[in-house]
What does this fold into?
Amino acid sequence: MAVIEAIQTTYVETFDVASVTFSSIPATYEHLQLRICPRADQAYGSVELSVQVGVGGVIQTGTDYYSHWMAGYNTTPTAGGGTARDYFKLQGASGDHPDRAQYSGIVADILDYANPNKNTTIMGVGGTAHGTATPFVAAFSGLWDGTGAIDTLKIHGWHLTGDLLRGTEISLYGLNSA
Amino acid sequence: MAAFTVIDHTELGAAASSWEVTGISSSYDHLYLEVSTRSDETAGWTVYLSDVRLQVSSDTGSNYSSTNIYWYNASTPLSDRGGAEYFDRMKCAATGTLADTFTPMTMWIPNYANTTGFKQIVGQQSVENNSTTDYRYYMGLNAFLWQSTAAVTALKLYPSTSDFVQYSTFTLYGVTGA
It folds into this structure.
């Protein structure tokens, strides 16, 4: 058994999509890791993706997600957060910038995702360095106030309403502890 | 292709003053640490943000340099640096933060076994909380320098004035590139 295993990769190939869902995630790993090469449909250089978790196959839509992030935006350090929403935020997705070839990178860890004694947290880094406008790099984290074992992850575009554009690729890995 | 090997995985069955692994083999290329923890700190402002320290190879000399960028209030991100007999400028959740919410911490120690240069460590942690009140959440990126040409053979992570709580997990991976 490999210590780190690829669970699933989704490549948005033909049409823009509202979301990508990883379901039936086994509880057998210790940790999960998302590696995302995204582009979202908002007309900004960099935008956030929205993530919801699922327990028993049911997406959790209550307003008990919390997020914090700090970032470098152009030449300015900045930071922000969001409380009591129905998703948490992954920062650093490439927006629908005029440079159509631009996709960004996000890596995020979900530690002890199946531990019944812990709320779910996510933490990672993401960013995009456009050549002409609005470069952005961020460290981010999120919290879902629930101890259910996560078996579903649903990754949306901006604020649950935007699309993930064609060419977006999202991979989910499991890390074992033995 | 990179291969991960589990060197140690510990889930605390009861509160403990530290997590420590010794006798780390030099046979890997890099080390990677994933931690999910909180402390039982009950006093002062650290009831929300507990200081965490890391000591390498049982070295108690003044051979540690720490620097970080962090954010925990309404202002823009801040940065800091310092030296001590341990790495510091890391935080984890304590008793004042939302129950069952553990702090994710990740750390890379590249080329940890080389005996010709000092060792650099990069890490990230986030104290998520259901709050945007100043000093009740935290996120940080760290760079550490251990000023020793000795191989890293042991790691000790500990809160400065309290214990890690039950269910805290510590997973140390050895990473090889071939």
